[in-house]
Please model this.
Amino acid sequence: MTNGNGTSPEAAPPPQLNVLAQYTKDLSFENPNAPASLSPQPQPPQINIQINVGANNIAQNEYEVTLSVEGKAENAGKLMFSFELIYAGVFRIVNVPQENLHPLIMIECPRLLFPFAREIIATAVRDGGFPPLMLDPVDFVGLYRQNMERQAAAQGVGVKPS
Model:
């Protein structure tokens, strides 16, 4: 039995995923209605969060993965605060089969970045005068599937003619 390239699975080097760097590419926090927005509110704000993942191959076996998180809190139609964070990491990935590479980059890499992005957002919101916003864990597998289905639909793949 071989792994497809003539070597036995025991002799194949193990897959590796290394984080070479992680960093904030962009961070914006707005509190346009302060100080009024900081006073006690009659009801909790409506909070809307958008999360996207992107990736670029920047060198052989190295990928920059970006986790974009945008959010805003509104109460009675007034903006209380809004934020945008683009948090990124550079990952070295070796000995991973080609068919597993894209899911690894788009699921596991953002999963590793998320706790750091979550902390940055919580701190920015707290420093803006509000209670820290603790984002719920993200289902990156579900997000990946949604994006793949959206791309397939956009390309007409799997869409039946009418």
Residues 95 and 117 are 28 Å apart (CA to CA). The helical segments are 98-127, 140-154. The chain has a mean pLDDT of 89. Residues 98-127 form the longest helix (30 residues).
